[in-house]
Write a structure and sequence with these properties.
Helix content is about 20%, strand content about 35%. It is of the alpha+beta class. GO terms for molecular function: kinase activity.
Length: about 220
């Protein structure tokens, strides 16, 4: 009965799959500084929406008793399911310091849990090229195609350096941009926004996490 209910929910939600975005992820960031005051690591948390989480667990045949808990073996299978990045993929995250684009490593030390019907994953990325001078950073989690929508609704924290603060700047949804977003939502699942005349729409709709330290 529980499996039947899950399949019914998938069918009822099918219309959601024809529009952009397809996946929604509440996002959190933790900025870790080294002893010299340079940004050294960023910790990324993605909490996927219930529908996508259900799709993943069904596809991977996890939580077959539908009690919302994973066995140790299931936990091991889930961990890393979203960390198999193709070459050139930037992890849907960009960080700049002033005019410098910082280099980010691939994901490491990743984890995944199923909690309250949502898959929540965390991974670390090493940061290269940061300077202890002018420590002002902008981090932008986004998918240029807007296949995945990242909302910075989870905590943003800073560790390893005193006097730092963070804030989230939401996208400026002007009338024109809202119209573009509505146009994007009408695209079918097989249409790339670039091909529809909406290049890099994900960046236009992205939130920006701003971290400043000291007097910056």
């Amino acid at each position: 009965m529980k499996r039947l209910l899950a399949l019914v929910l998938l069918c009822l939600s099918a219309t959601r799959a024809i529009a952009h975005p397809h996946i929604f992820a509440d996002t959190g960031l933790a900025f870790h500084f080294d002893a010299e005051g340079r940004l050294a690591q960023v910790e990324v948390t993605w909490a996927y929406d219930e529908f996508y989480s259900l799709l993943v667990t069904e596809d991977m045949e996890l939580d077959q008793d539908f009690d919302g808990k994973l066995t140790e073996a299931e936990q091991a299978r889930l961990t890393g399911f979203d960390m198999q990045w193709i070459e050139g993929f930037n992890g849907d995250l960009e960080i700049v310091q002033g005019d410098t684009d910082l280099r980010l490593s691939g994901p490491r030390d990743y984890s995944a849990v199923l909690r309250d019907g949502r898959i929540i994953t965390t991974h670390f990325r090493d940061v290269e090229g940061a300077s202890a001078e002018n420590p002002a950073y902008e981090a932008k989690p986004y998918d240029r195609t807007y296949y995945t929508a990242y909302d910075v609704t989870l905590p943003v924290t800073v560790s390893g350096r005193e006097g730092c603060r963070s804030r989230v700047r939401m996208p400026d949804l002007t009338k024109g941009l809202m119209a573009v977003r509505d146009q994007l939502a009408e695209l079918d699942a097989d249409t790339n926004p670039d091909e529809a005349g909406l290049p890099n729409i994900g960046e236009d709709l992205a939130s920006i996490v701003i971290v400043t330290c000291g007097e910056s």
